[in-house]
Design a protein that fits this description.
13 helices; four-stranded mixed beta sheet; Butyryl-Coa Dehydrogenase, subunit A, domain 1; Butyryl-CoA Dehydrogenase, subunit A, domain 3; 3 domains; globular; 419 residues; four-stranded antiparallel beta sheet; binds flavin-adenine dinucleotide; alpha+beta
Amino acid sequence: MLEVFLTEEQKRFRREVQDFVKSVPRQLILDMDADKVKFPYEFVREAGRRNLLGIRFPKKYGGRELKWVDEILYIGEINKLGVPFACLCSVTSIVGEGLNLFGTEAQKEKYLKPLIAGTQWAGEALTEPRGGSDFFGATTVARKKGGYYYLTGQKRFTVGAEGADFFLVYAVTNPGGGRDALSAFIVERDMGVEVRHVYGLMGCRGTGTGRLVFRDVPVPEENLLGKENEGSKIFYKMMVPERLLSGGVGGSRAILEIAARYANKRKAFGQTIRNFEGVNFKIADCITKLDAVSAFAYAVAKTIDDGVGTPGYQRRLVSEVKKLATQTYWEVVNDAMQILGGIGYTNVYPVERALREARLAMIWTGTNEIMNLIIQHEYYKEILAKEVEGRDVEADVALTQEQLAEERIYEAEPITTAP
Ligand SMILES: Cc1cc2nc3c(=O)[nH]c(=O)nc-3n(C[C@H](O)[C@H](O)[C@H](O)COP(=O)(O)OP(=O)(O)OC[C@H]3O[C@@H](n4cnc5c(N)ncnc54)[C@H](O)[C@@H]3O)c2cc1C
């Protein structure tokens, strides 16, 4: 985060988060990466104990009532531990967003409070084996009978499949209903959720990412979140933290700093490699991009905090943050590895772990192709709904109106046969 945006209170809060981040044992990071830890219970419990989970949510449920800009700052610091840790803290924010905005008082007491306290953990189960990008094509169904919904289907890649106490699950309650087909449910593991496979991952290990199977799992009707067939409303709100929090790029800043310090010491051809333009221009490009991402993420977080613009406009900006931040994260870590040369590819530095983790960010929480789909869709909607604002730059050419009418052609003219 750029210093200019931070208040003294935010600087204090950052120090508090930094203290927590510093306290996390290095061995936990290593053990998670080595798949020795299935789920870092102690990490989430400690985060909860320090009141560092669900920081935006109301104080009455244990939150701090902070803003989106604070959460970007927060996640940027957590991210220095690695993407899996930032992911776990984000899940509280994502599932918590659904519970906080759409939950009944009883649901907030039962699920949101312990989630923020770190005494219970949640997973969000959106993606299915048949695909994640086409969210509304979900095939997991919920059939109502008596006071229960019976859930049948599968979800894939759920973080916390191993570790979570309950899941936020989307299932079809209105087949063929398009965007009104889905409802969201709070499903406790003990209601009958089966974990069928825990994935071997390239990176981001230790968060219990697995495949869930639901076979007629009875979910009491009081565990319907929001209204029946209105799952899309919850989904759109949850996508704000899901994607905006990518803007906390503290991890790649830390990796870039490792590369810059290395270049300042490492010698080749009788001088420090920092002197080579091929190295120092990479550093310049990386820090420029990271600062641009941080400023942009802050601006978008403030846009949401201040309620500026339509939901579509906010959706576009949030998707832009996700795409730009994750692409930049990858590029920076990749360049850092190049600067370290061969040693960067080994476990002598944490750069190789960061590279493996960075790759995922362009895929999950909606791939960057899906971000492009949203961005262009919302942008077209915006510009085509209004006249050009301010100066009409398209008119600043030397041609007359008649010439323009002849030259600005947008489609083939119909072929006419000569009389
Ligand atoms: C480690 C890990 C953790 C995850 N955690 C969770 C979690 O906790 N909860 C959860 O619900 N999900 C989670 N996911 C799932 C993740 O969000 C999905 O993998 C992602 O949304 C993509 O879905 P998919 O893998 O099914 O790919 P697909 O949807 O099959 O897409 C395959 C490719 O096609 C492209 N594509 C698809 N449609 C279009 C289109 N219209 N235009 C252009 N390109 C398109 C995609 O961009 C992608 O490149 C996780 C995934 C991983 C790997």
